[in-house]
Specification:
The chain is α/β, with parallel strands linked by helices and 173 residues long. The protein starts with a strand and ends in a 5-residue tail after the last helix. The chain is built from eight helices and five strands; from the N terminus they run E-H-E-H-H-E-H-E-H-H-E-H-H. It has helices at 13-22, 36-45, 52-72, 87-99, 113-123, 129-143, 155-160, 163-168; strands spanning 2-6, 32-34, 78-82, 104-109, 151-153. The chain is globular.
Length: 173
């Protein structure tokens, strides 16, 4: 199974991913979490001290390669946090999931753009306003095309969400 945690940059996807991994509950095997922030952290730990804006393209390529590799592998449950605003990337992830025989569950963290920008400031990693406007426009369009079984949650609902509920298809709290 593939669980995609989608939301605007700064909306709380990484926080939700970590919470779901902590609350894996009764799943038969440990889920694998994939987040671009892990890649960035590893690169920084390796001694790179360049600003994130310089590191960003490397992070994205490495993260996307890792996602496709893990989806093709044996992990029974994969959790991916992603803005989900890039059509070509969405199609690539979904195709890789289908090729691996994975069902897909979409968890949509629906947070206003202003809240997401504030979240970026809190984590100390903001994206340029122009890029955020593009994400927001694509996000708004994407909300009209959600699959029927998508789990749409606010931040407060996300705080109570468990992976058992997501995987089992229970409605969000």
């Amino acid at each position: 199974m593939l669980v995609v945690i989608a939301g605007l940059p700064g909306s709380g996807k990484t926080t939700l991913l970590r919470r779901l991994l902590e609350r894996a509950g009764n799943l038969p095997a440990s889920p694998t979490g994939l987040d671009a922030e892990e890649v960035a952290a590893r690169l920084r730990e390796s001694g790179l001290t360049v600003p994130y804006r310089v590191l960003r393209p490397v992070v994205h390529v490495a993260h996307r390669w890792r996602v496709l590799r893990v989806l093709a592998g044996p992990a029974p449950v994969v959790l991916l946090s992603d803005p989900w605003t890039s059509g070509p990337w969405r199609r690539a992830v979904l195709a890789a999931g289908r090729c691996a025989g994975r069902s897909v569950r979409l968890v949509v963290l629906d947070v206003p753009a202003e809240t997401a920008v504030a979240g970026q400031r809190v984590r100390g990693r903001t994206i340029p306003a122009r890029r955020m406007r593009r994400h927001t426009a694509r996000w708004t369009r994407g909300l009209t095309e959600l699959p029927a079984d998508a789990v749409l949650v606010s931040r407060s609902q996300a705080d109570r969400l468990t992976l058992d509920a997501v995987v089992g298809g229970a409605p969000a709290a």
